[in-house]
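Reminder to self: tokens first, then the designed residues, so the page reads top to bottom the way the pipeline ran.
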């Protein structure tokens, strides 16, 4: 139902779109790459930008320092359902920079065969997305002079680097952040026409390994043969992580991995996911995961082990006959069900140690870890939001799984006892974490309108 109070807000959103794009561009120009200490000042500036912007909409907002990058918390309204909205203002590194068609921090609106997009780092993950909610609030406030319900905004600047400050921050501020339900805008649509509420997310475990052999780099002619080569050892370790059916071989890895329920399998099959098209869009033709599993199951319901980076020896132009003294790899595991990240970390380390030949040592550097999370969809807010989304988009909203990880969804539940509703408007071809990231203008525009509808519906019942 489109109430009068809502249609005025939707109209305002439509008329204000050009200004909303300019505000988004402003935020996108800030190079808030959280993982690289060289950009700490930019992360701080992005937090300041958000504080100012939220204050301009009437949120009582402050920047909260942490040992890492600051959080931003803002409050508005004092009655009605209390909604806690979360987004992250940090972005992924831009390299390889030479693969970008334009400066990643000079966002531009472009025409593409599939419609207008805004291109730049952070457009889809997550600045464009978080601004859909901010803009919906701005429009509501402009039209009605107040917001429709009690709202707390919570923005993080470390999501892309494992959220190291998050757990202590949530614990220390649990009373202030307590709400009826959390809303997270950091996920995608099911397809270009079908909005989605993501009900399960995979967890993540990051491990970096450094395999060391000889004391120094050596001439590969003088020493090749007798001297152990750490790159070969690393290759053997990496090759041993999967068997021929695509299963991960780390002992105990599948403990806590549930089989998909018949109900969920049927629900996902009914979505009519185009697995071939999904792969074809990135130049692939056959699924390379666990044998006997559908592509959707592989992404949404199965755990994985992937090598995200590997270095060692001479990687510059030309050729150098070197036998390196060390080799490194960054390896991540996506987790599902009740897989325990800590146990898997230990088991993985044990396995690597056991594969080392004489004269080799290994150093481990643990990166973030978070378990998988499944949302309890029994809160009536889920059905209310599903209906509101279905009014805005060509097709009705679907409940879906998500392959990525958003650590806070699990912590909202375990620390604050809060269920999260994950609603986002990203698309598979947004190139998040890659060169030429973009966000569709249709997503930005309908995203704002979707939130206005959801705010209306959640504050009316
Ligand atoms: N927005 C993504 C998560 C995401 C992507 C959810 C696609 C659903 C579909 C998020 O910002 C992200 O990329 N998270 C990282 C986690 C992190 C700890 C580095 C991820 O999933 O790799
Ligand atoms: Zn994100």
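Designed residues (461 positions):
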């Amino acid at each position: 139902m489109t109430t009068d109070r809502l249609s005025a807000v939707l109209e305002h959103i439509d008329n204000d779109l050009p200004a909303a794009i300019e505000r988004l561009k402003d935020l996108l120009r800030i190079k808030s790459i959280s993982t690289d200490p060289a950009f700490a000042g930019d992360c701080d500036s992005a937090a300041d930008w958000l504080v100012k912007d939220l204050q301009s909409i009437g949120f009582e907002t402050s920047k909260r320092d942490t040992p890492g990058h600051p959080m931003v918390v803002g409050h508005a309204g004092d009655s009605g359902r209390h909604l806690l909205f979360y987004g992250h203002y940090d972005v992924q590194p831009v390299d390889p920079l030479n693969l970008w068609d334009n400066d990643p921090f000079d966002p531009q609106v472009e025409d593409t065969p599939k419609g207008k997009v805004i291109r730049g780092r952070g457009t889809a993950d997550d600045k464009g997305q978080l601004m859909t909610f901010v803009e919906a609030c701005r429009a509501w406030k402009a039209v009605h002079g107040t917001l429709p319900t009690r709202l707390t905004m919570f923005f993080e600047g470390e999501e892309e680097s494992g959220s190291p400050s998050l757990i202590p921050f949530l614990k220390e501020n649990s009373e202030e952040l307590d709400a009826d339900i959390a809303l997270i805008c950091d996920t995608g649509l099911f397809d270009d026409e079908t909005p989605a509420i993501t009900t399960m997310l995979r967890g993540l475990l990051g491990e970096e390994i450094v395999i060391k052999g000889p004391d120094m780099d050596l001439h590969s002619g003088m020493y090749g043969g007798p001297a152990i080569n750490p790159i070969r050892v690393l290759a053997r370790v990496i090759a041993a992580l999967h068997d021929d059916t695509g299963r991960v071989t780390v002992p105990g890895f599948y403990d806590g991995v549930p089989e998909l329920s018949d109900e969920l399998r049927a629900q996902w099959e009914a979505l009519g996911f185009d697995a071939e098209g999904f792969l074809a869009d990135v130049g692939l033709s056959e699924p390379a995961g666990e044998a006997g599993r559908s592509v959707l199951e592989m992404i949404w319901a199965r755990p994985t082990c992937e090598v995200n980076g590997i270095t060692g020896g001479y990687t510059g132009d030309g050729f150098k006959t070197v036998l390196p003294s060390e080799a490194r790899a960054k390896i991540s595991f996506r987790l599902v069900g009740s897989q325990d990240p800590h146990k898997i970390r230990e088991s993985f380390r044990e396995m690597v140690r056991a594969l080392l030949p004489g004269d080799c040592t290994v150093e481990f550097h643990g990166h973030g870890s978070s378990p998988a999370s499944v949302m309890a969809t029994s809160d009536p807010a889920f059905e209310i939001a599903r209906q509101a989304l279905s009014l805005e988009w060509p097709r009705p909203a679907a409940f879906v799984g998500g392959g990525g990880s958003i650590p806070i969804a699990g912590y909202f539940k375990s620390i604050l006892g809060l269920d999260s509703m994950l609603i986002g408007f990203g698309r598979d071809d947004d190139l998040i974490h890659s060169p030429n990231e973009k966000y569709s203008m249709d997503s930005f525009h309908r995203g704002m309108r979707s939130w206005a509808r959801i705010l209306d519906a959640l504050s009316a019942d």
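The chain has a mean pLDDT of 96.
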